[in-house]
Amino acid sequence: MSTDTRIAARIAWHHFQEGLTQGDIAKLVGLSRGRVNQILGELRSDGVVQIKINTPMGACHEAEVALVQDLGLGAAIVVPNPAPETDVRRVTGIAAGQYLSEILENNQSVGIGWGGTIDAAASAVRQRRDATHTVVSLCGGFPVSTPINPYDVAARFARALNGNCLYITAPMFADSKEMRELLCTSSAIEQVLQRVPDIDVALLSAVDLTPQSRSLQYGLIDDDLRQSLLKAGAVGDICGHFLDAEGNAVDHPLVEKVVAPSIASIQKIKTRILVTGGAQKSQILKAAYKAGIFNVLITDETSATALLEEHASSKVA
Questions:
Q1: CATH 1.10.10 in the chain, residue ranges
Q2: CA–CA distance, 104 with 92 (Å, rounded to integer)
Q3: Nearest Cα residue to 114 out of 1, 215, 36, 10
Q4: SS3 labels along the chain
Q5: Which of 68, 234, 262, 312 could potentially form a cystine with 229 if both were Cys, beta carbons 3.0 to 4.6 Å apart?
Q6: 171 strand-pairing partners
Q7: Which CATH code, of 1.10.10, 1.10.30, 3.40.50, 2.60.40, is assigned to 3-45?
Q8: Mean pLDDT in each 10-residue stretch from start to end of the chain (317 residues)?
C-alpha cells in the first residue's frame, strides 16, 4: 500500500468511524484542512467510501407513493432537493447506485446508459466479489476523450460488480444512415443489440437540450445541431433517441444515425430505472414517461412534483 493510500485510509477512518472533524484530522496526519477535505471528496467519488442511510422510509415518502400509485411505476425514489452548490447528478446518482445494489440479484445482467448521473451511480454501487454479472453498454462511445465516456462508465460498473462488460464498439452517432446500418449488422455489435431485450435491469439517464447540455459540453453535438433538434420538436434524448414533448421520436436526420438499441428493445427489459434530476431535465423526464421508457424512477423533489403535476393536469384535460 502506497503512502498516499495509507494516509487516505487513515483520513477515512478518522472521519467516518471516529467522527473527527477535518481540522482535527489535518493536525493528526500533517496535512492542510483543505487537502483533507479534498481527499474525503475523492474517496466518495471513487467509491472507496460508500454511505448507506438505514431508514424504513424514504426522505420524500409521500412523493414516492404518489409516483407509484398515480403513474403506475414499479418503484420510485425521491431524494431531497440538494443545496444550490451540490450537483443534483451526484445526489440522484448515489441513490441509483444504492438502489441497484439492493435489487440486483446474483448473476443478473445490467444495461448501462451514460452521463454524469450514471457515473455517480458507479461510485455508489456496492462492490461484489461473490457473484458474476454481465454489464452491457446501451450506447456507442465518443470520438474523443472526455471526463465521462460510456465505455469508461460501463467498465466501472463491471469492475464493481465483478462482471464482464459488453460494449457497442462504435460511435454514438454514425456518419450516415447507411454507415449506421452497416455497423449495427456487424457481428460484434449485432450480438450486443440482440442481447438487450433479455437484460435484467437497465440504468438509464436523460440528456437535455438546454444550452448547459452535456452533449454540447462533450462535443457530441454543436449548437447548430442542437437548434435544429429543438426546431424538430426534440426536448432531449434517452440513449441517443431524441423525443418530443409527447414522447414520440422526432423526425430529424440525426435519429437515423444513432448506434444504440431501439426504444422498443429497451422497453422489453424487465426493470428499467431512469435516474435524473434538475429543472433542465423536466421536459425529457415527462417525455420519457409518456414513451413508457422507464418503470422505476429515481429523481429529486422538484422533478417528482413537476411530473406528478403534469400527470394530474393531463388527466383533467
A1: 3-45
A2: 18
A3: 215
A4: CCHHHHHHHHHHHHHHHCCCCHHHHHHHHCCCHHHHHHHHHHHHHCCCCCCCCCCCCCCCHHHHHHHHHHHCCCEEEEECCCCCCCCHHHHHHHHHHHHHHHHCCCCCEEEECCCHHHHHHHHHCCCCCCCCCEEEECCCECCCCCCCCHHHHHHHHHHHCCCEEECCCCECECCCHHHHHHHHCCHHHHHHHHHHHHCCEEEECCEECCCCCHHHHCCCCCHHHHHHHHHCCEEEEECCEEEECCCCECCCHHHHHECCCCHHHHHCCCEEEEECCCHHHHHHHHHHHHCCCCCEEEEEHHHHHHHHHHHHHHHHC
A5: 234
A6: 141
A7: 1.10.10
A8: 69 76 87 88 71 54 91 93 81 92 93 92 86 91 78 91 92 94 95 96 96 88 96 96 96 95 96 94 96 96 92 75
Q: What is the pLDDT of residues 227-284, one digit of tens each?
A: 999 999 999 999 999 999 999 999 999 999 999 999 999 999 999 999 999 989 999 9
- CATH 3.40.50.1360 residue ranges of the chain are 61-316
Please tell me the distance from the alpha carbon of residue 241 to that of residue 220, in angstroms, as a whole number.
13
Residue 260, number of CB atoms within 10 A of its CB: 26
CB-based contacts of 165, cutoff 8 Å, min separation 6: 134, 135, 136, 137, 154, 155, 157, 158
CA distance 68 to 77: 10
Angle between helices 3-12 and 22-29 (to 10 degrees): 150
